[in-house]
Q: What sequence folds into this?
């Protein structure tokens, strides 16, 4: 299907995890201890349970210490903030991640901003968002960082390219735009109120779709030869697979887009696996900064 090169995020993430494992081994040999990552899950959302399980598993596989905290859905904001304070003070913990979404009775940004910015391996703290926006030394959100690594791997320098980001969330759209600007791209951020969204997308050498709408970006929105990064992970009905069956699709209509794009990430197997690999990378970086260790080449 299609002529575009398929960008294999699953394989790239596996390679990155391998390099992280080797780097962690080196840190252990040199400094006698390993980085530690604490992951906090509130409630029983099935997808979040899978992501948290995978984060713990991949942390251990890379040789780092993993601390899992699973709290009941009815946990109060106060109890969660107390746990964050304890993790901030724990010298064995280099990275803290609170799995999103949180239950409605909890103010997510208040919780994220309670994390010590130096342990904020999700890069969601307002201090890290500010550092990224102003060219400082930020811990960078994992999904946009994963997109950037895939883009650099395919294109080398991104300087001077016109990048269009569809979506303006704090978790993906805004940090993605800031990262692309840092790479000297010309960046357009589009959203639900953008006039002529297909026309804006057609101007993109690099198109990043992070809007959360299944298969919204069509092939005729894409400039021939463009590199398309699909951040969407949407579960939809798949009657062709049988009654009640579902499948994952991205924000890009892969069938039509892969006939026009030069390269494209698939869903699943594109950006998704990069998210956890970049979390492990950020944990190594947070540990090195906090403990005054030399950051290994990754
Ligand atoms: N605190 C955070 N919460 C959430 C984040 C985040 O970065 N930090 N991102 C998402 C969920 N997420 C990690 O937490 C995540 C999503 C998807 C994948 C992934 O590997 N997806 C696979 C498909 C998985 C499937 O079959 O369901 C793929 O795309 O190939 C990893 C991590 C929201 N919450």
A:
């Amino acid at each position: 299907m299609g002529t575009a090169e398929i960008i294999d995020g699953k394989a790239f993430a596996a390679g990155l995890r391998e390099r992280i494992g080797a780097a962690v081994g080196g840190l252990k040999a040199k400094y006698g201890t390993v980085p530690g990552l604490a992951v906090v899950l509130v409630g029983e959302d099935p997808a979040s349970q899978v992501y948290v399980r995978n984060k713990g598993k991949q942390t251990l596989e890379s040789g780092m210490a993993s601390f899992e905290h699973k709290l009941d859905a009815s946990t109060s904001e106060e109890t969660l903030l107390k746990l964050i304070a304890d993790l901030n003070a724990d010298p064995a913990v280099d990275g803290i991640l609170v799995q999103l979404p949180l239950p409605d009775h909890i103010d997510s940004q208040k919780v994220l901003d309670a994390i010590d910015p130096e342990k904020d391996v999700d890069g969601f703290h307002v201090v890290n968002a500010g550092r990224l926006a102003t060219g400082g030394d930020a811990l960078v959100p994992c999904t946009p960082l994963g997109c950037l690594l895939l883009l650099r791997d395919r294109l080398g320098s991104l300087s001077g390219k016109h990048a269009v980001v569809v979506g303006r969330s704090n978790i993906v759209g805004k940090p993605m735009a800031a990262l692309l600007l840092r790479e000297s791209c010309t960046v357009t951020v589009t959203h639900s109120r953008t006039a002529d969204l297909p026309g804006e997308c057609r101007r993109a050498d690099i198109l990043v779709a992070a809007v959360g709408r299944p298969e919204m970006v069509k092939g005729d929105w894409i400039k021939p030869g463009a590199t398309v990064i699909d951040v969407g992970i949407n579960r939809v009905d798949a009657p062709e697979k049988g009654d009640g069956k579902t499948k994952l699709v991205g924000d890009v209509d892969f069938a039509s887009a892969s006939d026009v794009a030069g390269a494209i990430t698939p869903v699943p197997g594109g950006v998704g696996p990069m998210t956890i690999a970049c979390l492990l990378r950020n944990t190594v970086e947070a540990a090195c900064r906090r403990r005054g260790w030399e950051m290994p080449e990754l």
